[in-house]
């Protein structure tokens, strides 16, 4: 099959590695890709928001399947446009991607379908925001409605902090994404993520994972896109997985079908395990980054067949098999991330991963300089994944490789997967 993969992060590097491994893949094209993916396919420098360019590329290469990694093109309707060209797509339509694209939509959808979640109040003016902040006693969460690259959430301890956040979002801190806000009840408990595949009518469990969102050890410092991940999540046992499938994922697939916006692709369910049971923190309409880098090295089922099954309502015949070992992924980021950072520092000794069994280095913010050396150009630059018999041994294996990578301006958390 001719497969087009869209994206350029660590998640897409892990997807490229998986797709290239499938016996069904005869040609893999990646747009725009990164230097880590050079060995897996041909790369075309077309940006993920250039929908015209991507559709033309898919047509020119007679793609049999397009795999859309990031949320921006999904929310913008790339899957719809490719479907109109009769090209199979892994990823939901724009209407279904609203589960990530609008937090107000997702909350209202869950309310309509009795999916467990915190109390929430959509608002679009400061006075109403203040009213609900006071009503929740100031202990609440303020969220920009639209896509804000993971930054549009403020967890507040008191009314003053909540009001500052609401004012700043309504005044345009996140552009049009913050025109509407959700004021939410602040719930508590451990967090975990569950990934399911949906084919419009059926849903099957894919895998579980746990992200580490804060920049520094012991969950200190600012929120980031994710500084590491482990899979499976030690918080979700079989009984909890079944409960999340029955109370959250099945109502999503049936509810979306009933509302004529069937959901095809992967659904990422961000959960808080409260005393009252699992509740939805957020939905994403794509794999997590860096969760994909922890999950995909454990997958033992052919990924292309699984993706094709999401396009044809045939998932109920599908049996996903997994390596029973644990995976730990450590992100190496540029010093200063998620704020400002220097670009252009050379990274050496990545070959160490090639010499180590069951270890993978996925690239995100890398490029090649004029000498062909690998340099750091993004915030999150590398994701190092290792497998092990349990989380502790996977963690040991991952950090052994991380410590060997020579990069002066890089930093990483030293407590990924520590329990
Ligand atoms: P999100 O971008 O929606 O995943 O939110 C980022 C982080 O904010 C989550 O991982 C949680 O730690 C926290 N959070 C979001 N919503 C709530 C909530 N209603 N109660 C408590 N914490 C929350
Ligand atoms: N790691 C969180 C996300 O991909 O949204």
Task: Calculate the mean pLDDT score and round it.
Answer: 94
CATH class of the largest domain: Alpha Beta
DSSP helix fraction: 25-40%
Poorly predicted parts: none
- The oligomeric state of the chains shown is single chain
β-strand percent reads 25-35%
Structural class: alpha+beta
Largest sheet: 9 strands, antiparallel
User: Termini distance?
Assistant: 42 Å
Q: Indicate the CATH topology of the largest domain.
A: D-amino Acid Aminotransferase, Chain A, domain 1
- In CATH, the homologous superfamily of the largest domain goes by the name ATP-grasp fold, B domain
**What is the C-alpha radius of gyration, as a whole number of Å?**
21 Å
What is bound: which ligands? adenosine monophosphate, glycine
Looking at the structure, what is the overall shape?
Answer: globular
CATH level-two architecture of the largest domain = 2-Layer Sandwich
Chain-wise SSE layout:
Elements lengths: L1 E6 L2 H12 L5 E6 L9 E2 L7 H10 L4 E4 L2 H5 L2 H7 L3 E3 L3 H8 L1 H10 L7 E4 L2 H10 L4 E5 L8 E4 L2 H12 L10 E5 L5 E9 L3 E9 L2 E3 L3 E4 L4 E4 L6 H21 L5 E11 L2 E8 L6 H5 L7 H9 L14 E9 L16 H4 L4 E5 L2 E3 L5 E3 L3 E9 L2 H14 L5 E2 L8
Parallel strand pairs: 1-2, 1-4, 2-3, 4-5
Antiparallel strand pairs: 6-9, 7-8, 7-9, 10-11, 10-15, 11-14, 12-13, 14-17, 15-16, 17-21, 17-22, 18-21, 19-20
The structure holds adenosine monophosphate and glycine.
The site of adenosine monophosphate has 13 residues, from strand 8 and strand 16.
């Amino acid at each position: 099959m001719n497969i087009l993969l869209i994206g350029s992060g660590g998640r897409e590097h892990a997807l490229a590695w998986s797709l290239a491994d499938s016996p069904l893949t005869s040609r893999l094209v990646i747009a725009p890709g990164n230097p880590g993916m050079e060995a897996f396919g041909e790369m075309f420098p077309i940006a993920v928001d250039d929908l015209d360019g991507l559709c033309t590329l898919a047509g020119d290469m007679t793609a049999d399947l397009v795999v859309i990694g990031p949320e921006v093109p999904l929310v913008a309707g790339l899957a719809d446009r490719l479907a109109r060209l009769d090209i199979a797509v892994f990823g939901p339509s724009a209407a279904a991607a609203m589960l990530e694209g609008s937090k107000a939509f997702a909350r209202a959808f869950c309310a309509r379908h009795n999916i467990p979640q915190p109390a929430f109040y959509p608002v679009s003016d400061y006075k109403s925001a203040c009213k609900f902040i006071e009503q929740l006693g100031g202990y609440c969460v303020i969220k920009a409605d639209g896509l804000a690259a993971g930054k549009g959430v403020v967890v507040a301890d008191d009314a003053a902090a909540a009001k500052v956040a609401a004012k700043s979002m309504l005044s345009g801190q996140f552009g049009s994404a913050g025109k509407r806000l959700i004021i939410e009840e602040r719930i508590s408990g451990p967090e975990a993520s569950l990934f399911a595949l949906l084919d419009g009518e059926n849903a099957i469990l894919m895998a579980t994972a746990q992200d580490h969102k804060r920049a520094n050890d012991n969950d200190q410092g600012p929120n980031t896109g994710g500084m590491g991940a482990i899979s499976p999540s030690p918080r979700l046992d079989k009984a909890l997985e079944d409960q999340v499938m029955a109370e959250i994922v099945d109502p999503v697939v049936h509810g979306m079908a009933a509302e004529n916006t069937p959901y095809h692709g992967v659904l990422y369910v961000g959960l808080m395990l409260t005393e009252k049971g699992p509740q939805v923190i957020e939905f994403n309409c794509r794999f997590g980054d860096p969760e994909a880098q922890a999950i995909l090295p454990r997958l033992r089922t052919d990924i292309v067949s699984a993706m094709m099954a999401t396009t044809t309502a045939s998932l109920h015949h599908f049996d996903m098999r997994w390596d029973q070992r644990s995976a730990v992924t450590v992100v190496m980021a540029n010093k200063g991330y998620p704020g400002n950072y220097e670009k252009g520092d050379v990274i050496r000794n990545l070959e160490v991963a090639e010499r180590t069994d069951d270890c993978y280095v996925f690239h995100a913010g890398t490029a090649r300089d004029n000498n062909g050396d690998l340099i750091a150009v993004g915030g999150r630059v590398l994701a190092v994944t290792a497998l092990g018999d349990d989380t502790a041994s996977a963690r040991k294996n991952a950090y052994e490789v991380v410590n060997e990578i020579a990069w002066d301006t890089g930093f990483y958390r030293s407590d990924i997967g520590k329990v």
